[in-house]
Write a structure and sequence with these properties.
This protein has helices at 88-105, 165-168, 171-179, 211-224, 272-286, 305-310, 322-334, 354-360, 376-381, 397-409, and strands at 6-10, 13-14, 20-23, 29-33, 40-48, 52-60, 113-114, 128-136, 141-145, 189-194, 199-204, 227-231, 239-242, 249-253, 258-262, 293-297, 314-319, 342-346, 365-368, 389-394, 414-421, 431-437. It is of the alpha/beta class and 438 residues long. The protein has three domains: 6-67, OB fold (Dihydrolipoamide Acetyltransferase, E2P); 94-121 and 252-437, Rossmann fold, CATH 3.40.50; 128-194 and 199-246, OB fold (Dihydrolipoamide Acetyltransferase, E2P) (Beta Barrel). The strands form four sheets. Strands 7-21-22-20-19-16-17-18 form an eight-stranded mixed sheet, with helices on both faces.
């Protein structure tokens, strides 16, 4: 097959990335954007590799019962979403199958049971976003939004269905604002962070703002009510611009009487509704109890640590980032959780951890919530006699599966349960959670 060749295919399944999977008459695998399991489609080759073809569906002859009309008018052009043409159950069933496949294929393990999928809002859920900004001299205008699919170009968009409506409504005003600045060609990115009661925007700029630029940005912040921040260099240069001081961004975990404060560049989950559901499930699986000693690894701001401490258990939060450790301590203090109940420590969780964990332990239970790279150094360093239970929260099923293989096949655990969480609707990102027992 060559680029632009057209072929009719029967779609066998939907993979976790939202592409239909088929085989052509020669037996070669094809991944088809815009196609769902059970459909028969006409598709065009976008890219041909030795072992697979990447294709785009152009006509659907036998629509799936899970197919629906995409809500966003930019779907298919914008790279922010991949599966708006599939309903929520179809999307999540594919992600669940993808998780099971990774566990079996990579980790050589199977869960004793599958956890029910956690569903949540599909629209307006994305409380964190990195918007691309592009000055287009030929058009005499600025574009603000996400990249086009399979491209570095910015989408010419004026709204977004997965951003909160208040943020979506800012896209057109942001385009006008940046177009009015002297540095419009030198402002490549705007970071969005939404708290319970405030929207913060971090303007990444490569040249200094003029006094006139600052006046326009100040007027924009006053008019829209956003908290404007500036980033002239690396992350250490991020600072509030207007208002110079404001109440902290934050989100609540009402089931545990906890509120987490954060800065616009701190890591937080993009979907606050699903984060509350995820924390609730994690605590149910962990079942912390008074008198237990529990470690929260990759603890961040205390998203899991503080709810665990509410149970009466003694908690140690470990995190590689000094700034996050400081913020977690502030959150513990603000929520009335003293050092007798919860402490935080900066620890390099990507180094050899056998000696540090031996010094810090033993722990009855662990909660592990690593970034996409996973927690290989942690799981390989665990001793043979503790902990008795691990709850592992993952944003990458491949690294979860790899680490699960170590825990089950080398460390004496069994994989009791695993399941997916609807943290990132319409995207290829898979959030999952797993329970391991000795």
């Amino acid at each position: 097959m060559k680029r632009h060749d057209r072929v009719t295919l029967s779609i066998d399944s939907l993979n976790a990335e939202g592409r239909g999977v088929a085989r052509n008459t020669a037996g070669k695998v094809a991944f088809v954007d815009g196609a769902l399991a059970g459909e028969r489609v006409d598709a065009v080759v976008v890219r041909s590799k030795p072992t697979f073809d990447l294709m785009q569906a152009h006509a659907v002859h036998q629509p799936s019962s899970g197919r629906r009309r995409p809500r966003c008018r930019y779907f298919g052009i914008c790279g922010g979403c991949a599966t708006q043409h599939a309903d929520a159950r179809t999307q999540m069933a594919a992600k669940q199958r993808g998780l099971e496949d990774c566990l079996e294929r990579i980790g050589k393990v199977r869960p004793q049971s599958l956890l029910p999928i956690l569903y949540g809002p599909e629209w307006g859920y994305r409380h964190r976003a990195r918007l691309t900004v592009r000055w287009v001299p030929k058009k005499g205008s600025v574009l603000v939004g996400f990249h086009e699919r399979r491209s570095h170009y910015a989408v010419d968009m004026e709204s977004c269905e997965v951003l909160p409506s208040a943020v979506s409504a800012l896209i057109r005003p942001l385009r006008d604002l940046v177009a009015s600045l002297s540095i419009r060609a030198r402002l490549p990115q705007i970071e969005v962070a939404v708290g319970d009661a405030m929207i913060a925007l971090v303007f990444r700029h490569l040249d200094a703002l003029t006094p006139e630029d600052e006046a326009r940005l100040r007027e924009f912040a006053q008019h829209t009510g956003v908290w404007a921040w500036l980033q002239p260099g690396g992350l250490d240069t991020v600072r509030p611009f207007y208002p110079a001081t404001a109440p902290h961004l934050g989100y609540a975990l009402p089931d545990f009487g906890v509120r987490i404060a954060f800065s616009p560049i701190d890591f937080t989950q993009v979907n606050p509704t699903m984060n509350r559901a995820l924390v609730h499930r994690a605590l149910n699986l962990l079942a912390p109890a008074p008198g237990e000693r529990i470690a929260d690894l990759f603890c961040g701001l205390g998203n899991f640590s503080l709810p665990i401490a509410r149970s009466g258990a003694t908690v140690l939060g470990l995190e590689s980032s000094e700034s996050l450790v400081a913020r977690a301590r502030e959150n513990a203090h603000a929520n009335g959780l003293g050092e007798a109940r919860i402490t935080f420590q900066e620890t390099n969780l990507y180094a050899d951890l056998a000696a540090p964990l031996a010094q810090l332990g033993p722990f009855d239970k662990l909660l592990i919530d690593p970034p996409r790279a996973g927690a290989m150094e942690v799981v390989t360093a665990l001793p043979g006699d503790w902990p008795r239970r691990i709850v592992y929260v993952s944003c990458d099923p491949a690294t979860l599966a790899r680490d699960a293989g170590v825990l089950v096949n080398a460390k004496g655990f069994r994989l009791e349960a695993a399941g997916v969480v609807n943290m990132f609707p319409h995207t290829a990102h898979v959030e999952s959670i797993a329970l391991f027992e000795r």
